[in-house]
Amino acid sequence: MGTAASVRVGARVPVTRVEGPGARYALWVQGCSIRCPGCCNPHLFEAAGGEAVGVDTLLAEVRRARPAIEGVTFLGGEPFEQAPALARLAAGARALGLSVMVFSGYTLEELRARADAAVEAVLRVTDLLVDGRYDARRPERSRRWVGSENQRFHYLTDRYAPEIELPTAGAPLREVEVRIETDGRVGANGWPVWRGRGWGASEAERRPTGGAST
């Protein structure tokens, strides 16, 4: 479950508009024991990858981004495998007036059945939870931000409503952001395009992986 002092981080983006409602600080945790077949982030499976970043450091980044964002999003990897640290980070974000969105491969019922204090602490400060394992046999074709039809949105507070799940008129269902860093690295995050045979690249972009840099 990790420690409360630091998060094993695979990637992070200070301001993104494709990882939940509005502009958000996005954090991809490193490590996932679920390892859904077909996951678009297999590079985040190994718990030993990425880097350990202190919660205080991450919260300082969130604070700096705060004027430009409405919330934070935790993805992975599996966020609840680092629940003690993420509980602190999420509580700090909420104290700044920001919303908290979490993606988990575990269902809400599985998380609550653990009776784990750190898991409950994360849930208490989560506004929007997206749960469930990715099922490549059941691709999602209408809702934003989820990969398969079995995955569910849980509105744990009244901050958001189900209307956010559908794209606005004229807006694409799947979006990708591409960033060119000052050192020449290219980073991409967002959601793949459904091609009929699986999730794949759009005509202009490679298949995106959350927060990955090449």
In CATH, what is the homologous superfamily? Aldolase class I
Distance between the termini: 29 Å
Listing every helix as H and every strand as E from the N terminus to the C terminus, the arrangement reads EEEHEHEHHEEEEEEE
How many DSSP helices?
4
Uncertain runs with pLDDT below 50, 5 residues or more? 194-214
Report on the biggest sheet. Answer: 7 strands, mixed
Shape summary:
globular
- The overall strand count is 12
CATH-defined topology: TIM Barrel
CATH architecture, by name, is Alpha-Beta Barrel
CATH secondary-structure class: Alpha Beta
Percent of sequence in beta strands: 25-35%
Number of domains: 1
**Backbone structural class:** alpha/beta
Main-sheet strand order equals 3-1-2-4-5-6-7
Estimated radius of gyration: 16 Å
What is the typical, i.e. mean, pLDDT?
Answer: 88
Helix content: 10-25%
